[in-house]
From TrEMBL:
Protein name (record): Uncharacterized protein
Domain of life: Eukaryota
Amino acid sequence: MAGVMPNIISLPYGKSPPLHLQTTSWRHLLKLMARLPGTRIEPTAQATQRNDELYLRTVIQFVRPHYNSQTWRTIVWFTIDQDGERSNSRRSSNPGAHVEKLPHSYSQMKLPALLRDGADSPLSKTYTIPSTYSVPHPVLPISFPNLTLYLQAALDESRRYFNDSTSGMRKFAKMLEYCYPDEFDSGAGTRERSRMTGLFKKVIGRGGKSSKKGRGGNEETYDLVTPFVPDEWG
């Protein structure tokens, strides 16, 4: 489906299905979103009536169509943090314990088909990004370039736990190594990853509050990043 990526992607609060985007790979997702400064995710007008800061919850999923396929796709699912989960997830002393659980908002809706099985399988790997001191949930609205920094910072943090078998935090890095070994091996070095995390810390919580808005030729099409269509996977 061809078309121009919208400048504003509205995210509702409550029982609505999650926003979902797909790309051919994790690297493709980050590179493309970084090239879309004019696009941002923001809460709907109804959601902003809550008069609270609204935080973005993100679930990463790698999927493939069948057991013999060597090609994985990257799907990211977005919802707004719900009142009932804030005290548990955002201030947890053990964030690694939450990476296997979908955010609370998913219990309020009919789950998308690709998330209904819950546990990982040979066809699907899922990681819920937890809130940590270094990488807290970002405040909405957030631009695509800042969201790119957040996603990369979450991966960088997971990499730091890669050899710690006692922590669930390493799951994201393990998923990337399994599904996209070339991207995992060719990832940025320690110094570069530290720089990316530092950049994220400078922008987190400020998304959309600056008077400057992304401008320019935001002409990327939906054949590069598209709302995911479950029917493609039977």
